[in-house]
Every structure is written in structure tokens, then in C-alpha cells.
Amino acid sequence: MSNVLQQLAVARREKRPCGIYSVCSAHPWVIEAAIEQALDDGSDILIEATSNQVNHRGGYTGMQPDDFRRLMCDIAARRGFDESRIILGGDHLGPNPWQRQPAAEAMSEAKQMVEAYVRAGFQKIHLDASMSCGDDPHPLPGETVARRAAALCTVAEKAAGEQKPVYVIGTEVPIPGGATESLAELSVTSREAASETLAVHRRVLEEAGLAQVWPRVIALVVQPGVEFNHNSVVDYAPERATHLAALLNDEPGMVFEAHSTDYQRPQAYRELVHDGFAILKVGPALTFAMREALEALSLIESELVAPQKCARLMDVLEQVMLSDPRNWEHHYAGDEDAKRLLRRYSYSDRVRYYWNDPRVKLAVDTLMANLREITIPETVLSAFMPDQYRSVRAGSLRHDVHSLILHPIREVMGVYAKACEPQAL
After folding, report:
1. In Å, what is the CA distance from 162 to each residue of 21, 89, 123, 215, 425?
2. Contact 347, 178 (CB under 8 A)
3. Are 147 and 159 members of one domain?
4. Which helix (H) or strand (E) holds 371?
5. What is the pLDDT of residue 39?
6. Residue 180 CB: number of other CB atoms within 10 A?
7. Which residues of 244-268 are buried (b: 16+ CB within 10 A; e: fewer)?
8. Which residue, 83, 211, 386, 391, is most buried by CB atoms nearer than 10 A?
9. CATH number at residue 305
């Protein structure tokens, strides 16, 4: 299936650029929505786990790479989707989860993680050793980044069977997961910086005896000028990235991978694919849409279900986030009211770290059970979920609570899917 990714550069050379969107989420409903989208499109699907989310020690989801793969395959089987059409990727695989440790220790953990990913059958590996570890200088020299990436690549090649993975190199600025600083400071990667990243990685891989790997280095992560923070989005401006698009003329086997593309306008995705950003990452926007759906359903519940039976999901979620602030307290600033709003509504959607909490899961289950016992009147659905109401009236959406949750997620994915279709240069 890695051939699907390698064909992205071929399509661009043939003046018919196309793309693929990468679903960066471990939530089962997001995965199910993605598989539904792929079934409707007749396409393959790229699903990625991050180094913090899934690793050999469990990550914040509690899943190791084998567990993540089984989850994908189980959902695919239930939906009748051929699991051979799922492309699994590992995002930002490097020392990031252990960067507070000395470099030697952090890299030892990173190597074990990469080995676990490859042995589990992940076909797309993003080698990212760009972060400084506990005893490193800031920022990390490019030569050091490349040598650590080569060390991780060596592990991956040894762990792979006959089906070798494809690789992505480079990293975006700012750090993964959405910006926390002023978006006014956001800069597009310069052509010189992108060229230098490619040159040093190619040289270091050759020096490490990995010259045969370079044709499988399919993409470079750069900053095309798209980003979001808690309340704002930087929209893609093609004129700011023309120098990057031109660089691909000198790298015919390469495309760009764009991270943090969440919340862009639909036309931006077409423009990104046209300009060579053929791999589009999306994550928080999907769980953001899911949270909005669950919040709307919670409001519907309060209108239709006896108060003593209500799950009060959003109240439970707030209580859980306050009792365990580790996943948001260092990201959200301001007074208590500002932080309250950010906990629920931030574009960075750090709510997504809490859906696996047993208290939250129980509240979700209770909400779902309550709404399955009743029929939501169309007039109430219109008041709280107008887009879904229109789809129900049109006959294109089933009027059941599960479908009402998946539909907003599908709306986000549908924009990406349309933009990734082949287009003419």
C-alpha cells in the first residue's frame, strides 16, 4: 500500500496532482467515520498515530502499535472495509515523548518505539528527531537531527520484512499539535531551509549505509503557512509558498506533507494539493466536530429526558478536566473564565485527551442510551443540529444518535476527500 503514497510524486510529475489526507486520531468514532468516507469514495485510507498517542509503552491512549492496528482492523471488519486498503502511519516518531531525558536515553526509547511500529505493519514512518533532549543545545543542529533520524531509520529497516516502509522527514514549525504562540510570528519554510534539510538527510543516510532508502523518502514536512492556535486560524496564501512549490521541480520523487491543516477553508486544501502539499494531516478538527455533536446531543437530552436521568456529559467532562489538568494546564492561559472557555471550545481541542476516561465514557454511554430510547423530534433536531436536520429531511442521513455523531466528522473529511481528487496543473 505504500505504493499509493509513492504515486503522489508520479502524479505531480504527470501534471495531474492529487493528494491523500491523513487521519490523525485514535477515537473509534473518528476511525469509523473515516472508513465510511473511504467506502463511499472507493479509496484507500491513511490513518496515523503519533508518538505521544501510541508507543511501545502505551502512550496516552494506553495502546501500543499492535493494539492500534487491531483497533483499525476490528472497525474495518465491522464496516465491511478491506483492511489491506488501510495505510498505517507513525507520526513524529522520535524522542519527543522522552525529550526531558538525556539524549541517549530518549533515543533508546525512540528506537524501541520505531521497531514496534514497523513490526506492527506500519507502512509510513515519519522520522522526526528535531526536538532537543534533556542534555542537548537549543535548537538542535541539523546534522544531529539527521544523524538521529538515520539511527531510527536503521532500526526500521532491520525490523521490516520484505515490505519496506516509506519515510517522511523534516518537521513543521511550531511544534506539533497547534501553535501556542502568536500566529503573527508564523513563517513559511524558506527554500534554503527545505533544500538543506533534504541535502543533509540524504548525505547522512548515505554515510550510514542507507543510500537504498532514499527513493522511499517520499515527503518532506515543511511549514506552508497554515496553522491554528486556541482561537485563530492562519489561512493558506499560495503566493507565500511559491518557492516551495518550485523546489519540487528539482525533487521529482518528493512531495510535501502539511501538518496542522485543520480548520482551513475548503479552497485552501485544493490549493495546497495543487502546490505539492500532497499529504494533508487532520486531527483536532475531527474530534472538535465530534465534541460539537455530543454537546448538541447533550442539550437535546436536557430538553427531552427527565433531569434525574440525564448524563450531563459536558458537566462531567468539565469536572474530569479540572480533576486531571495535566493535558491542558500548560497550554491554556488567562483567568478562570478564559480557561473554562478554552477547555471546551479551543481549536486545539485538548478535550480529546479525556474521552477514554472511565467517568467520561460512562457519561457518553448514558447519553447514547437515553437518546436511543426516544425519537428526537425533527423540530428539536433542527434547533440544535441544523445541518444534520437538513440531511435527515433530505433522506441522506439516518435519524439515529450514532449517525448524528458521525455525520459532522464526515463533513470535515468530505472537504479533504474532495480536495485530494486529481486536478490539472
Report:
1. 26, 17, 12, 16, 36
2. yes
3. yes
4. helix 358-372
5. 97
6. 15
7. bbebbeebeebbbbbbbbbbbeeeb
8. 391
9. 1.10.400.20
Q: Which residues contact 266 (CB under 8 A, 6 or more apart)?
A: 415, 418, 419
Whether 135 and 280 share a structural domain: yes
Side chain identity, residue 77: A
Q: Do residues 93 and 175 both lie within one domain?
A: yes
DSSP 140: P
User: pTM of this prediction?
Assistant: 0.95
User: Of 178, 167, 242, which is closest to residue 202 (Cα–Cα)?
Assistant: 167
Bond before 102 cis per omega within 30 degrees: no
Question: The domain containing residue 322 runs over which residues?
Answer: 290-410
**CA-to-CA distance for 305 and 408, rounded, in angstroms?**
23
Residue 425 within any structural domain of the chain: no
Here the cell at position 286 is 475531527
pLDDT digits (tens, 9 = 90+) for 2-57: 689 999 999 999 999 999 999 999 999 999 999 999 999 999 999 999 999 999 99
Closest to 274 (Cα-Cα) out of 250, 222, 239, 235: 239
Whether residue 372 is found in the same domain as residue 255: no
- Nearest one of 362, 354, 284, 343 to 320, comparing CA atoms: 354
Peptide bond into 139 cis (omega under 30): yes
Number of domains, the chain = 2
Give the E-state strand segments of 25-102 in sequence order. Answer: 45-50, 86-93
